[in-house]
Amino acid sequence: MQNEETRDEEDEIKSESKTSKHINIKVVNSEGNEVFFKIKKNTKLRKLMDAYCKRQGLVNGSVRFSFDGNRVNPETTPDDIGIQSDDIIDAMVEQTGGQRYYHCWNSWY
Fold it and tell me: Can you list the domains of the chain with their CATH numbers?
C-alpha cells in the first residue's frame, strides 16, 4: 500500500518538474503582432531575443525588449526577472536618426 502511494507521489513530482522546466512567453511588437516561444526557465533571454530578431528579419540590437515596463537584459533568465508562463515581453524597434535641417544662409533645406 505504501509503495503505491510513494509511486503516485513520485509520478506527481516528475510531472510537475517536467512542466515547470519550460515556460511559454509571448513577444508582442508595437503593431500588436505576436510571436510565441517556449523556453526553459534558466535559459538566458539573449536566445529568445536573437530568435525573435531572426524570425522577424530584424538586426540584432535594433530591437528593445521590455517586461513590466523594465528593459530586459539579455544575460538574465526568466527566473531572474520573474517571468512566468504566458507572460508578455514587449518588443520595440529602436528608431534612429530624425529630421535633419541644413542651414544655408537664410533658408532651411
Answer: 21-96 (3.10.20.90)
